[in-house]
Write a structure and sequence with these properties.
CATH superfamily: PurM-like C-terminal domain
CATH class: Alpha Beta
CATH architecture: Alpha-Beta Complex
Shape: globular
Number of domains: 1
Number of helices: 5
Order of helices and strands: EHHHEHEHE
Largest sheet: 2 strands, antiparallel
Strand content: 5-15%
Distance between the termini: 23 Å
Number of strands: 4
Structural class: alpha+beta
Low-confidence stretches: 1-10, 12-20
Radius of gyration: 14 Å
CATH topology: Phosphoribosyl-aminoimidazole Synthetase, Chain A, domain 2
Helix content: 25-40%
């Protein structure tokens, strides 16, 4: 799977996959704790929130952050487990940063977001 998340929220992109963590700039938590979200974050959460299951440890600002419609034009790529190491090495050899943010697992189609 490969999808652009430049025009959708992280969680919206992940309604097609299972994940465990998301990269974010270091200043993001400060702004989020201050409640600085576009209106689309709440709209997005309302639109597909029933498909999201949040870890009880996540605060409301963390939950909203994952439905924020603003992104930096990231790209999501899913590798079969046996090809993950080779895929990460291929990115690294070309100077492209890549981060593992979760895994797809069998289930009912809901998205589990945890620490």
């Amino acid at each position: 799977m490969c999808t652009s998340v430049s025009n959708s929220a992280w969680s919206g992109a992940f309604t097609r996959s299972k994940r465990s963590r998301s990269p974010s700039p270091t200043y993001t938590p400060t702004l989020a704790r201050a409640g600085l979200f576009p209106g689309g974050a709440k709209t997005n959460r309302a639109a597909y929130g029933e498909a999201l299951q949040f870890d009880a440890e996540l605060s409301d600002w963390q939950r909203l952050l994952l439905t924020d419609p603003q992104t930096s034009g990231g790209l999501l790529i899913a590798f079969p487990p046996e090809r993950l190491t080779g895929g990460l090495e291929a990115f690294a050899s070309r100077g492209v940063g890549a981060t593992v943010i979760g895994q797809m697992v069998p289930g009912n189609g809901d998205i589990l977001i945890s620490r």
